[in-house]
Amino acid sequence: MGINNAKHIIGEIEGVRCSIVESGVGLERAAFLHQLLEFNNFDVKEQAVPSETPEGETTYTIGVTDLLFNPTYAVYDFSLKTPEGGYVTPGYWLQECIECNPSYWLRKRPKK
Questions:
Q1: Which phi and psi angles does 72 have, rounded to 5°?
Q2: Cα–Cα distance between 58 and 4 in angstroms, integer?
Q3: Whole-model pTM?
Q4: Which residue of 4, 14, 34, 38 is 20 to 30 Å from 95, comparing CA positions?
Q5: CA–CA dist 79, 94 (Å, integer)
């Protein structure tokens, strides 16, 4: 799902109803989200989904037991913290940067 879609999805992981944070992600992304959400005191559930492709890669579905959690609102409302002590910005959530400028709307064009 990610933060590009504000739709709130509820699913079941390990027999527990959860807010689905992201689905179809790889192992590294699943580990990043798991660590970040646990740091923010969420009970995280993870489900491995074997792929039907010839490569046989396993993808993961990440969810939290807080049924009101919406990752889009949490990121843009600055309600999540990073382990470094800052706020989770869209760039941090998407793993584009570690120390992101929280004023994401003030991106400047590069000088020519």
A1: -65, -50
A2: 23
A3: 0.81
A4: 14
A5: 16
